[in-house]
Amino acid sequence: MNMKKILLFAVGVMAMCAISSCGGADTPASVAENSIECLKNKDYSGYVDLLDLDLEGKSSDEIKSTKLMYAGLLKSKFEETSKKDGDIKDYKVVSEEVQDSVASVKMAVIFENKVDTMNVSLKKDKSGDWKIQQKK
Asked: Are the C-beta atoms of 27 and 96 separated by less than 8 Å?
């Protein structure tokens, strides 16, 4: 009986960790925070999952290939930033503006060698999840 409680507790803790990792979230601010957490942990695939990618009508192989390409590009770009500014040490939401299905979140990101601010633009996808819009 006691072992059941321990097992249940362990499963609950693992579920909480999975929910709070680099997955989707309910608010634009939480998606922006998750995106920075993914970068901090070098989880580029997790970051790509937060992007608003146009994958409708693509095969599973095309989707996988597209996501791998984005993750590779992100890794390359972020490694350049890390060489110059150092790793991300901390981050916080400065402001969040939401209008209907679009939002802008201003983040303060603390690197080893500097503090930077960035604006994260988001929009709701067809399923109602907030996704990061790509800069063009």
From this structure: yes
